[in-house]
Write a structure and sequence with these properties.
The protein has 221 residues and is an alpha/beta fold. It has one domain: Vaccinia Virus protein VP39 (Rossmann fold, 3-Layer(aba) Sandwich). The chain contains 9 helices and 7 strands, in the order αααβαβαββαβαβααβ. A 7-stranded mixed sheet has the order 3-2-1-4-5-7-6. α3 crosses α4 and α8 packs antiparallel against α9. The chain is globular and about 60 Å long. The protein starts with a helix and ends with a strand.
Length: 221
Amino acid sequence: MSDELKSEIDRDIFRKNFLEFTRKAFHLIPTMDYPHILDIGCGSGVQTIELAMQCNGNFVAIDINEQDLAKLRYHVNVRKLTHRIQVLNCSFRDMEFPDGAFDIIWAEGIGGFITIESSLKDWKRLIKPKGFLVLHDEARKLSSKLDVVTKYGYSLKGHFLLPEDSWWKRYYEPLENKLISLRNKYQHSPALLKELVKHQNEVNSFKTNPQNSGFLILQKL
């Protein structure tokens, strides 16, 4: 995306519309004084910052998108959270943290890159005894995930779906409205209009195949 459109289309604004569900999921976990939390696939850290506001924990936030991580580092510095949030360019496939390093593993929106079986199995060693794994993923995958929770040594502490129209009302409709205004603004710039078409195609795809998502809150046995 061109730098001009990057400044115009800030998807973090739409992502923040889902933070009430991040808070809801987090508060289904028993209160801990100073939890150590691993945020896998943190992106630009919208949920990382929010979780830091909800507790006194220390965080390791990992992703492989350096541009997103730069945004997170900026917000960590602005909010004076450098002593609590460590930001790493690291793939979830290459994690070398010690066994039992974390009270909570948090993963929003990474389900398209890893199977439920792999996440439950591979990440389990990183969680302290009786620690927690929180997953946010497509609703259609949740039922299959519930079927394998106990198989991999977890108990289900809670789960919920977002309201049915959440992704449209909170994300894609605001995005589409922004795209309409940008097409008017850049109507004489063919290159930028071409870029905007890619974003509109994403919106159109959602209209054709709308989906929902939900949270699973699991405890390591």
